[in-house]
Predict the 3D structure of the following.
Amino acid sequence: MDGLPSERGDEGIFPMTEEDLSQVVCIEQASFSLPWSQSAFESTLRCPTSQPLVYRKDGKILGYAVCSTVYEMAELYNIAVDQSCRKMGIGAELLSFVIRYCAKKGAENLFLEVRRSNDAARRLYERFGFSYDSVRKNYYKNPTEDALLMHLPLKK
């Protein structure tokens, strides 16, 4: 896979596999009020435009990201880090990898949406140069909250 190690190593970013899903779903459920289901992650494994990734260390999944590229557009659908491993740079490593991967696939812009109250994620995206585009009012549920749409130009 473009730019990804094909073997299961001790530490780093690797393509997500079916064997990873139970750990990924646990992180997802602990991270979001409306988590993706296991079947949603299974769908990304089968989708030719999606790239589901995991950050693995010593056989344990510490974080994951799911992005998609379609021609000149890319979208970061999901990114999360195990609560016990936050503030260790894993989210930044995953995001950096996603940015490089999407650019290599020919995307000109990377889009994402984030809860208005998710200050940690917003700071991370801002640090990487994402800018705010618009707001989707009351997009998120449980609790109801706006989604902020952001993008990063990949072609300079």
Q: What stands out?
A: The helical segments are 21-31, 38-46, 90-104, 119-127. The beta strands are 11-15, 50-57, 60-70, 73-81, 109-115, 131-140, 145-153. The chain has a mean pLDDT of 91.
